[in-house]
Amino acid sequence: MKKKFPIEVDCANCAGKIEAAVQKIPGVQAASVSFVAQKMMIEADDDDFDRLLKEIKKTAKRIEPGFSIQAE
């Protein structure tokens, strides 16, 4: 499943670091972060998506404490 989420990230460098870190999380098939659009696209299996979303938030906040993602 591929989903897009509104995010809040403060700089393009942080967005790039978050994207790289999220792509390394086991179970994430693809991820992209757009600083300009303030969007994150995540592709992962439906069955594991909720767990992965929690891990993604945790990983992103370690890189940028002000990061937020608006999950549905």
Defining key terms:
single chain, 72 residues, alpha+beta, Alpha-Beta Plaits, four-stranded antiparallel sheet, 2 helices, globular
Structure description:
The structure is a single chain. With 72 residues, this protein is α+β, with helices and mostly antiparallel strands. The protein has helices at residues 12-23, 49-63; strands spanning 2-8, 28-34, 39-44, 68-69. Strand 2 (28-34) and strand 3 (39-44) form a beta hairpin. The chain is globular, with a radius of gyration of 11 Å.
Largest sheet: 4 strands, antiparallel
Approximately what portion of the residues adopt beta-strand conformation? 25-35%
Distance between the termini: 14 Å
| Level-1 CATH class name | Alpha Beta
What is the helix content? 25-40%
Strand order of the largest sheet: 2-3-1-4
Tally the helices.
Answer: 2
Gyration radius (Cα, Å) is: 11 Å
How would you sum up the global shape?
A: globular
**Which structural class should the secondary elements be placed in?**
alpha+beta
Give average pLDDT, whole number.
95
The CATH topology annotation reads as: Alpha-Beta Plaits
Named at the architecture level, the CATH assignment is 2-Layer Sandwich
**Number of domain modules:** 1
Low-confidence stretches: none
Summarize the structure.
The chain has about 70 residues and is an alpha+beta fold. It has helices spanning about 10-25, 50-65, and strands at about 1-10, 30-35, 40-45, 70.
